[in-house]
Amino acid sequence: MVACEVVEAGDPAKRRPLSGTRLIEAEGEVLARHLPEQGRLVVLDEHGTQYTSPGFARWLEKEQNQGTRQITFVVGGPEGLSPVISGRAHITLSLGMMTWTHEMCRVLLLEQVYRALCIVRKVPYHKGGDR
Q: Where are the domains of the chain?
């Protein structure tokens, strides 16, 4: 069993009008309060590393084998992530070169994590090529 928790940090622009650099900084402050001290931090960005599903499964399995107990994935706001957050990342992951809404990123990411765990555990879900 793998525990999964989805935390929405909130949108600081809803409390006061912000844009550009100030919005990125405010979102970074909000996100930083929600990040755990332990584990691996993965931020999503269009310029990050792209994996195939089996490749992502191998990465996840390697993390598990190295004793990683917690992986935190961060999807930033529409203006991008604060350097305060991206600078703490162990890896930057891309879901592809297309632009996705944050809600879609969450669904795509959760599905890929589920798929990766199925590949690692040899559960018949992934219909693609070999690991």
A: 20-26+38-121
